[in-house]
Structure formats: C-alpha cells, structure tokens
Amino acid sequence: MLYSEKVMEHFANPRNVGEIEDANAIGEVGNKKCGDIMKIYMKIENEVIVDIKFKTFGCGAAVATSSMATELVKGKTIKEALAITNKAVVEALEGLPPVKMHCSVLAEEAIKSAIADYYRRQGIDPEPIVGCSLKCESCHSHG
What we know:
The chain has helices at residues 5-12, 60-73, 78-82, 86-92, 101-121, 127-130; strands at 25-31, 36-45, 48-57. The chain is an alpha+beta fold. Strand 1 and strand 2 (36-45) form a beta hairpin. The N and C termini lie far apart (42 Å).
C-alpha cells in the first residue's frame, strides 16, 4: 500500500494532537469494524474555530486524516468547516489508498460531530445546520 509523502508527513508529525481543557465542542466517532476512533476538541468563539485538537486511535491513515482535517478547519467559521468534505481532506493529503478512504470519512464526521455538540450545548438542534448523523441515539428527533 502506497501512501503519499503528505500522508506520511502528517502521520509522522501530526498537527494539533491532544485535548483542549476548556473545549466547548467535542465530537467522537468510531468505526468498530476497523477499530479507528477519532475524538475532536474545539474551542469556538463567535462562530469561529479558534482552536482544535484531536486524539485518534487507529492506523496511520486515520492519524494523518485527523491531522489534515484539523489543519483545514482551524481558524475557519463553522459554516466554512461544515463545507469541508472527506474529499477535500483526501485532496489535501494528495490521495489515500481506496481501502483507507473510510478514514477521511471519519475525519469529516468527527468535525461535524463536534460542531453538533457545540450547538447542543447551547440548546440548539444541530440537525438543520449540521445534517443528520444517522447516529439516532445522539439525536433527539428520531427517538
């Protein structure tokens, strides 16, 4: 399996690793089948992601996509962050092997999950803004 230099760079030197003590947005997603778990911490002020960190348990591609995804949304508005797709993460990493594409999907979902958490903490239903996560236990409207 060949990884781009960009993937190897983000795996070897991941950006934004760790957690944010006073995070006001936390999202965690996982894929039980492959064992990858991503947790994203955000500090959001005035609709802008001023800080972002992640902890990922998984393969090198999972670490690299988490790292790149956090780089892509850091300093962006929530609206800009929600527009970043897994394809954008893959392009920024200069490609991923087909069997690792799910890692980029997880990175996108982790960002959306954290943003949904941010809205929930403010008593706002995130679904109209973030979209349905299909994780019905975390959403009240499908109950």
